[in-house]
Specification:
about 100 residues; alpha+beta; four-stranded antiparallel β-sheet; 4 strands; elongated
């Protein structure tokens, strides 16, 4: 991957009322006003979209001689943009955990 960008999709007003440290955990933040950040996952909605060719994808394609692509992934709290030459997506089984922190 050549570049990535992550930006919030949460409105400023929601941020303003969601600064309490108790909102990092669902158990301690459930009864508070504000967004509970400690959800441990994000809703992938509306999801991923391949973007049209851009100046950046054309520049990298020309420099390296291989195709580059740009994708935008929208979730309920973050918008991610990735610039890459190859991307592999794998479906995993329910409950899959590549690592577990105790």
């Amino acid at each position: 991957m050549i570049a990535e960008r992550c930006e919030t999709s949460v409105p400023a007003e929601t941020w303003r009322v969601s600064l309490d440290d108790r909102l990092i955990d669902h158990a301690s933040g459930a009864d508070l006003d504000g967004y509970v950040w400690g959800v441990k996952w994000h809703c992938l909605y509306p999801g991923a979209k391949l973007l049209p060719s851009s100046e950046a994808t054309r520049r990298w394609s020309k420099a390296l001689g291989i195709d580059f692509h740009e994708v935008r992934i929208e979730t309920n709290t973050h918008n991610l943009t990735l610039l890459f030459s190859d991307l592999q997506v794998s479906e995993v089984q329910v409950g899959y955990a590549p690592f577990v922190a105790e």
